[in-house]
């Protein structure tokens, strides 16, 4: 007993899910808080040590700037709301979220990619699928720490050259957009392990894609490809390849 070392108990992650119990209130379903507004959020969030905050499906129409005191926040879920834009006025606020690593904006009504997101310094996972985004800003290259990005089911027709400065990307999903081509600059994404391009309008894939030898999963089904590049054999780590429903590709269409 004389050599017993007493270690302090590990601190549990502080999280708050408005779909469950908050303070002294219990909500039986998400619809019970459909009209949650910023004042309500501010009143209920009193613990500055919260690390995970779930506000999905709360009928929010704007980014809740009242959470600016949550300096330890790592995960923020704002999916399934009615957010249409993120105002440039909260750039400084977002820049102060030094610990935010995961942001989920899936299933909102965003038409223009929110430039203020590009000021979040340490974000590594960004989900912004099921919106109406037509293009990405040049500032996208500022997301230098980004590892995972999901832009499924938007209206993207191309990726700006700045996008290919995201050299730390390992998982990228661009399914169900309107992309017609993929830039040869894709060769910069050498850390890429998963690339999903299903259900676009791609007519070809650049040979530079097949220099991304860390790729383990590549989905290009349901496109307008006319041939499959023979250099696909260079992807020696590839474990899953989906080339289904390519009506213009014949069994001999390898180049």
Automatic annotation (TrEMBL):
InterPro entries: Leu-rich_rpt (IPR001611), Leu-rich_rpt_4 (IPR025875), Leu-rich_rpt_typical-subtyp (IPR003591), LRR_dom_sf (IPR032675), LRR_domain-containing (IPR050216). It holds the Pfam family LRR_8. Gene3D superfamilies: Ribonuclease Inhibitor (3.80.10.10). Keywords: Leucine-rich repeat, Repeat. Signal peptide: none annotated. The keyword Phosphoprotein does not apply. It comes from the Eukaryota. GO terms for cellular component: cytoplasm. This is Leucine-rich repeat protein SHOC-2. It comes from Callorhinchus milii. The lineage of its organism: Eukaryota, Metazoa, Chordata, Craniata, Vertebrata.
């Amino acid at each position: 007993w004389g050599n017993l070392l007493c270690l302090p108990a590990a601190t549990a992650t502080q999280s708050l899910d408005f779909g469950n119990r908050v303070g002294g209130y219990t909500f039986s379903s998400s619809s019970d808080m459909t009209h949650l507004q910023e004042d309500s959020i501010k009143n209920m969030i009193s613990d500055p040590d919260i690390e995970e905050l779930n506000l999905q499906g709360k009928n929010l129409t704007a980014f809740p700037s009242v959470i600016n005191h949550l300096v330890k926040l790592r995960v923020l879920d704002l999916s399934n709301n009615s957010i249409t834009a993120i105002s440039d006025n909260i750039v400084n606020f977002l820049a102060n979220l030094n610990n935010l690593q995961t942001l989920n904006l899936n299933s909102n009504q965003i038409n223009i990619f929110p430039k203020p997101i590009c000021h979040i310094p340490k974000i590594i996972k960004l989900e912004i699928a099921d919106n109406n985004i037509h293009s990405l800003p040049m500032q996208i290259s500022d997301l230098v720490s980004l590892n995972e990005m999901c832009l499924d089911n938007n209206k993207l027709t191309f990726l700006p050259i700045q996008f290919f400065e995201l050299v730390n990307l390992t998982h990228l999903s661009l399914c169900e957009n309107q992309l017609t081509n993929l830039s040869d600059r894709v060769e910069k994404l050498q850390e890429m392990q998963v690339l999903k391009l299903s259900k676009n309008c791609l007519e070809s894939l650049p040979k530079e894609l097949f220099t991304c030898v860390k790729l383990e999963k590549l989905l290009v089904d349901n496109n307008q490809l006319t041939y499959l590049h023979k250099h696909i054999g260079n992807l020696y780590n590839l474990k899953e390849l989906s080339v289904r429903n390519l009506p213009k590709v014949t069994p001999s269409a390898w180049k």
